[in-house]
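Our consortium's second objective concerns turning raw sequence data into structural hypotheses that experimental partners can test. To show how far this objective has progressed, the report includes one record in full. It was chosen at random from the queue rather than selected for favorable results. The single chain below, 271 residues long, was entered without modification.
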Amino acid sequence: MGIEPIKISICSSEEESWDTIWKWSWFTREIWMSEHWEMTQRALQPFFSILSKLRVRSILDCSCGLGFKTVMFAKMGYKVEGSDASAIAIKYAPKLAKEQGLRIKFYRSRYEELGKNCNRRYDCVYSDYFDEIGNYKTLRASAKGIYLVLKNGGKFIFCSPPQEYTKRDLKNLIEKEWRKRKRFEIEPPVERDGLRVIHIEIPEKTQEGILENHVYLIEESGRMRAEIAFTINSRIKWTFQNFAKVLKGAGFRKIESIKREEEDILVIAAK
């Protein structure tokens, strides 16, 4: 009697990969959620004083994922909504908010489609993924989409390498990031609803950044299958000058930066 082979499904695009990652991240959240809440709070803490100085009241978290940042904004008293290109992320983000006693509007939209998918304007649009967009055409279209959902005088805020960094400096950042990465990580198995899932992450260094290969081993009714997703995270491809050019092209009138860490700044673009 032959051994039944493992069925392997490989995502065909980065968008499909994110759907897979969010699906199994939600399933396995019991093993990482507590630490992630703490990391999110630490990451956003310096950001709140900036929002206060800018007199921001309403925010669109336009790369909300499962909604952790969106929930944090809501808990700080901001009128916040969340959007993401992943249908799976948008499926689970309201459930996360509800678990925290909040009702937050989430909707599915790519950056470049915000103008047609959003029926309101915000004081601030925040993204922690704009700097990781894969190609220049999409970067330009995304800047225009974000511009359209801001109020006059509204601010778009995201991360960027320092202004003086060149393409060569970006390659050095990739090397530095690569040296910090473990060569693979295996999370403890999670069992629920008749499924047993193990997540394995295997990074690779590329010209654009760190390619993360996510392997999910799923056991159900005694049968094993695998789902494989991939994302470039962190993608270190664009300089501050690249961002400034596309933002000005989209109509933003003023572009400033605030130093956040040694090799990281916050860009504030005003409409």
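The partners drew two points from this record. The first strand starts at residue 7 and ends at 10. The chain has a mean pLDDT of 95. Both points have been shared with the crystallography group to help prioritize constructs.
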